[in-house]
Design brief:
The strands form 3 sheets. Strands 6-7-8-9-19-15-14-11-12 form a 9-stranded antiparallel β-sheet. The chain folds into 2 domains: 266 residues, Beta-galactosidase, Chain A, domain 5, CATH 2.70.98; 197 residues, no CATH class. It is an alpha+beta fold. The protein contains 13 helices and 19 strands. The chain is elongated.
Length: 543
């Protein structure tokens, strides 16, 4: 019975958590345009993009650049399909109105390439397969902008050669211009970025806060105040993928936001002004990450950038579980089997708690005849009934509450695995048996139904007490069927974990039920001395 209540508590807690998340999403304010004037350095020119599109690529990333302005107008992830059905590269930067995102960048300041009213007029000076150098000369100042790909990193180097007789002021800037993509369908196998349980939007890291989410509502309402920092980054999170800008190290920068009347959200990051004296050359460097949330690589790009893999409050459990899953996959090379192996290892780790839980549960079951006899001796006297029941418990070392603590320990582990499966890009589009994508719900509902059948059998192994309230009894009988509905909404990988975990639970229950029944029937259970005297308050000692 303790096991049943523990499972009920875990699932109800998780269900309440997910329902609260859904409520927050549904009640979030919808974009309402204001009258902010669009500035030249973050406005899009579709005709210019089409006429001046220039692409560079490597094995994993194809980046499309406006060769006239140097803006990033397209990015295709060559090793990630758009959907399970569409075997074309997933696009992170795009002019598509449904998932619009572009990166406007350059040099601001009185001696920069861009201003509020004009942009640079670059031309292509040289290029290779994975890099391009753009050049622009005006008023005896030559600007070279080199863009080079290194995996999913995009390195941008500005070289300013000042042949004029005046001192220039320049500051690298980068602007994310985006429109939120529509929420994905819960059961769709063609989701682009992931499930609607994941956060999508602006994330920033500064000296004062290494990881901060900024909601679209805060941007719309002008509630986000500009922040200045010496270290950090800005990023647009899209569940399994992220587009991040990392300013040059040790160079102070300011982050500000805006919302335009055409529906664009603008995230501006501008570094502090630097002087370029006459007759000198200055080189400045920035970098971007445009790609999947690969934790091992993200943490090498910038400090705390791996936090965009959002494990929520359960990060201290999800992170080691992810490392363990990675380790197991290095030997198994199949993500479905890896989840099964992860389940076995986790259950092995918590087996001491499981032993206490299931042994006590089986013990409570076999001593029911003695508990019934104790209640019969007590009659209608509630106090005596409690006393007689406690005597039986003390005799065998049993407890009504021993099974609750292990169940409470397992609840954060379950939530940690929920975050892990929901955030691990490694599981995206990974097949297992009939499942095409372990990060999405089972489109045929086979796993949820199978899990329901396993749970029905598991519940049958823990019969309900005869004196249980009739309404509570009905609810308990309905729980396996409620679980089937509940698990329809969860990623297949998580349900696979839970099925295997429930099968292990069944093995524990069967083993300890048989063992304790045998020990009790043969008077082999250890018993403890019970003092048969009335319970009275302790007497005070005389001084």
């Amino acid at each position: 019975m303790n096991q049943t209540r523990g499972i009920l508590f875990i699932v109800l807690a998780v269900l309440s958590f997910l329902l609260f998340q859904a409520y927050i999403e549904d009640t979030a304010p919808k974009p309402q345009p204001n009258e902010t004037v669009t500035t030249a350095h973050n406005s899009a020119n579709t005709a210019s993009d089409q006429a001046n599109a220039f692409s560079i690529s490597n094995d994993v990333l194809k980046l499309t650049i406006n060769s006239k302005t140097g803006d990033f107008i397209g990015a295709d992830l060559l090793q990630y399909d758009r959907t399970v059905e569409e075997k074309v590269p997933l696009t992170l930067l795009s002019n598509n109105p449904d998932d619009y995102l572009r990166i406007v960048n350059g040099l601001a300041g009185t001696g920069g390439t861009d201003s509020q009213t004009s942009r640079a007029d670059f031309t292509v000076a040289s290029s290779t397969a994975d890099s391009v150098t753009l050049t622009y000369t005006v008023n005896d100042v030559t600007y070279n902008k080199t863009i080079k790909l290194e995996g999913y990193q995009v390195l941008v180097t500005y070289t300013v050669e000042n042949k004029s007789d005046r001192t220039l002021e320049i500051a690298p800037y980068s602007s994310f211009v985006y429109r939120p993509a529509p929420s994905p369908s819960l059961f769709s196998t063609s989701n682009i970025y992931g499930t609607n349980q994941s956060y999508a939007g602006l994330v920033i890291s500064t000296d004062s806060d290494n990881y901060e989410k900024v909601s679209n509502g805060d941007i719309e309402d002008n509630d986000f105040k500009p922040l200045t920092s010496k270290y950090g980054w800005t990023a647009i999170s899209q569940h399994f993928f992220v587009t991040a800008y990392v300013p040059e190290a040790n160079n102070q920068f300011t982050i500000s936001t805006n919302y335009h009347n055409n529906g664009d959200y603008i995230i501006n990051t501008i570094s502090a002004l630097q002087n370029v004296a006459p007759g000198t050359t200055v080189t400045l460097s920035d970098k971007y990450w445009i790609g999947p949330k690969l934790q091992d690589q993200l943490e090498t790009v910038a400090k705390d950038l791996d936090l965009v893999v959002d494990y929520g409050w359960a990060w201290f459990l999800s992170l080691p579980l992810f490392k363990l899953m990675q380790f197991l996959h290095s030997f198994i090379n199949n993500w479905g089997i890896t989840i099964i192996a992860l389940t076995l290892v986790v259950r092995l780790i918590i087996s001491p708690l499981s032993r206490i839980q299931f042994r006590n549960q089986a013990l409570m079951r076999v001593i029911q005849p003695e508990l019934a006899a104790a209640n019969e001796r007590a009659g209608e006297d509630r106090m005596r009934r409690l006393t007689e029941t406690q005597k039986v418990f003390k005799k065998y070392g049993a407890s009504q509450f021993t099974g609750c603590f292990p169940a409470l320990i397992q609840m954060p582990i379950f939530l940690a695995l929920f975050y892990l499966v929901n955030e691990a890009v490694e599981l995206r589009h990974q097949p297992f048996l009939w499942i095409k994508d372990l990060s999405q719900a089972d489109p045929y509902f086979i796993l949820p139904i199978l899990n329901g059948l396993v749970m029905i059998f598991m519940f049958s192994l823990t019969p309900m007490p005869e004196n249980m309230d009739p309404m509570q009894r009905k609810i308990m009988k309905m729980m396996p069927y409620i679980f089937v509905i509940f698990f329809l909404f969860l990623p297949s990988g998580l349900i696979l974990y839970y099925i295997v975990s429930n099968i292990i639970t069944i093995l524990f229950i069967v083993y300890y039920n048989r063992k304790l029944k045998y020990l009790y029937a043969n008077n082999l259970l250890p018993t403890y001395k019970v003092v048969d005297r009335p319970i009275t308050a302790p007497r005070r000692k005389k001084k």
